[in-house]
Amino acid sequence: MAEIPKAYEPQAVETKWYSFWEEHECFTADPERVSEARPAYSIVIPPPNVTGVLHMGHVLNNTIQDILARKARMDGKEVLWLPGTDHAGIATQNVVERALRKEGVMKHRDDLGREKLLEHIWEWKEKHGGIIIDQLKKLGASCDWSRLRFTMDENYTKCVQRVFVDLYKKGLIYRGKRMVNWCPKSLTALSDEEVIMKEQNSQLFYFKVQVVEEPDTWLEIATTRPETIPGDSGIAVNPNDPRYANLIGKHAVRPLPVENQAHLPIVADEHIDIEFGTGVLKVTPAHDKADFEIGQRHKLEVIDVINANGKMNELAGADLDGLDRFEARKVATAKLEEMGALIKAEDYKNNVGFSERADVPIEPRLSEQWFLKYPSQEQSRECVANGALKFYPERWSKTYDYWMDGLQDWCISRQLWWGHRIPVWYRGEEIHCGLEAPEGDGWEQDPDVLDTWCSSWLWPFATMGWPGDTETLKKFYPTTDLVTGPDIIFFWVARMIMAGYEYKGDLPFRNVYFTGIVRDKKGRKMSKSLGNSPDPLELIEQYSADALRFGTMRSAPLGADVLFDEKDVELGRNFCNKLWNACRFRQMQGGETEGEIDPTLLTSDDRWILRRLDQAITEVTDAFAAYRFTDATATLYRFFWSEFCDWYVESCKATFFSEDAARKANVLAVFDFVTGHTLRLFHPFMPFITEELWHGLGFSAEMPDDQGGQTIMTAHWPKSFQDDFKEHYALDETIDDLVAAKHELVTAGRNLRGIGNIPFAKKIDYIIKPAAKLDAYEVEVIQSLLNAESLKVDADYAPRKGTPVARSALGELYLPLDGLIDVDAEKVRLEKQLEKIASEIQKADAKLNNPKFTERAPEEVLQEAKDRLAEWQQKEQQTREAIEYLADA
RNA sequence: GGGCGAUUGGCGCAGUGGCUAGCGCGCCGGCUUUACACGCCGUGGGUCGGGGGUUCGAAUCCCUCAUCGCCUACCA
């Protein structure tokens, strides 16, 4: 047995064990090992962006996955945790382009051209793509790294293309000219999910237009976008609006001087909100989704006045031509005012869609794009509704269902270079969709690439070698659990489910655990600009990975956001230290670990801690089954610190310092039994320190060597004790009462020192008057826990009236103080206590005097209430006596 | 506009019909007690967001109001 060093040095220990696990292939999944006796457990990582660095969200997410994977291994399952990274189209291209501009390699991507830019991005990927993988290893992630995947691996790319071609042939993918969300900065179309609505402090401008047929009539219109007036091709009112009924079918003239000064038809459309503004809408079909649809209904002209880059064009008129859209808004407003058409401008809050990546307002734009009609919609809705696929917390299934109910076709083409190129070729009017370029000359491949999510929605099976019918796929698909954030429920989760049904005929995972969002302790979202996002690597450096994991899990309840506080990590660190020192203390006692427990030598404390351990095993195991990791950590914390260290270990000291070798050996055996179980219960949460201590205490010697290494990783998950075990060791309930009474007496006894302000270190003499015969062992332990010089057992003890006393079911514990008491302070304390007792008695009385209660409450509830009243009355009597005594003193 | 969630001691949370509403951190007081000051011992501190109802009994179930958060939405 190697000696456990005095100070825990996590950095060296963590590196050592991670290498050990990797060398011994502890993370490797082998489909051949899967059998009835050894079921498969699988989980695919939500692939982080290949250029990403580890943040607190990853820590939370991957710690949970690792906990699940490690627990599954201890349950005897063959575990595949499949890792990988995502090429993250726009994000990555942005990052690399920015770097290249900074380095002066290019000003704009057109300077380099497609091929060259892609070379640079690949180069970047090779250089930085491994960073986050190394960081996950630091965290302790037990992924099967031999299967590391990337969404632009050759095989993966083939999957993406194959699916595209298939859906094209099924008629589910089509090309069309539609209104899309256009990002004027990235110069690409975006899906609805990539647009984030943000509330803006805007202005609502009221201006007037003249009705052509009735020159005396002016219509007032409210708009937030006066710069698009040149793109207006109609005026719309609600058909049920009496104010404007007589104008329908007539025309109006734009106030802005533009080349094309046509008369705009006034149309009636149900979509117009009578209440809003003036109830009159200017219709700009080219620059607003709703307007486009109104335009379609009334055959209005589409006048595109904004270019792809967000600048106005010549159709906007000479005044606005070439201006940025926001600049143009100011100019247009000034122009309206100059013309006397502006009535007023009022402050107004509205929601504007922003590009998720480029963070600029998106521009609705008519554009030729590829769209996808979602496949397997019915099955995908059904599996969540009927519980075949479970969401944790369950309430997200409503969100899911709501979205599935209103599915809109997905715009999948992106005007980018980094990504999977669309497998379609054109030659004149001809079009070819296939895995290979068509035969013959003159074919041009579509320049666009696919939305990133258009590859990641295949992740669960594409990473397992699909479309080949591989062993991995057969054994590990569908996966067991998916751990991800609810923010990508539509982006990713829903789409994976649909792809899973469409291509594997089965759901992709059975359970989805939605983590909360990691916020700072003030509840704010973590962000670079706020600077409130700690670097997990620094936290690991300072506190250890185990501390970070435990601290995070301890404050991350299922279904709630995580308010991250570095204090939590500190607590994790402190806990590791406690664990470490408790094990060190064990080792300092010497003795072998293989000691068998002799049931005849078990003390009440031994039995009690075994019962507590059994309880902890049940609680932690149940918590796992319900994905309640916070509960599991709370149980472990309570059990190990409050029950094992604070009471059991302290009780053991009486034995350890005694001369009784047999008794000592038996306590050590119990101690080892408990720590052996505890380390295993902790292992999923704190893999490194538990492995170190497992070896340090010599438990590894008991391990089967079936994976080329002796490791706690494959030790069996503790099971709740069987009845025959409990019987053999006499672990019956009566133990709990005895030990609880003992603890109560000790705590109360320690409190007696408070009366005279006697420091705990001072050895003093207590006298105990036992209620029944008290074991010599119990007396010894109580004396030790009280740090008493002596503890005299005297069944006939007749204390002087008012001697401080502590009581519990075990008996009475006296501390003769002989004039050390501060009479006044003590009196105040007792008076206060009396008030509290009186109020409790009143409550209990009221309850028992209520005939409805006494008639209808069940017998045991009634009895409890009676007992409680009696208890309080007794306390009242005792307190009165003490006060009386003080008055005499 | 619709939906979801939250509201319990200073802070973060547990507690879904019945013990005196718990826990962690913090606060306060005392301790170099033979593992651990990243520690030990102990004390305070809450009319469970407001109001109403159901019930013998409500933090817990129902109604209502308030505040906060999240998601969703083509009110320009």
Protein described:
It contains 28 helices and 29 strands. Helices cover 44% and strands 17% of the residues. It has 889 residues and is of the alpha/beta class. Helix 20 packs across helix 25. Strands 7, 8, 9, 10, 11, 12 and 13 form a 7-stranded mixed β-sheet that branches. It has a 4-stranded antiparallel β-sheet with strand order 6-5-14-16. Strands 27-26-29-28 form a 4-stranded mixed β-sheet. It is elongated, with a radius of gyration of 37 Å. The mean pLDDT is 86. It binds one RNA strand of 76 nucleotides through strand 8, strand 12, helix 8, helix 11 and helix 18.
For the sheet with most strands, the description reads: 7 strands, mixed
Question: Looking at the structure, what is the overall shape?
Answer: elongated
How much is the radius of gyration in Å?
37 Å
Helix content: 40-55%
* Average pLDDT number: 86
Oligomer: single chain
Alpha plus pi helix count? 28
Strand-residue fraction? 15-25%
Uncertain runs with pLDDT below 50, 5 residues or more?
none
Q: Got a strand count? A: 29
Structural class by sheet pairing and helices: alpha/beta
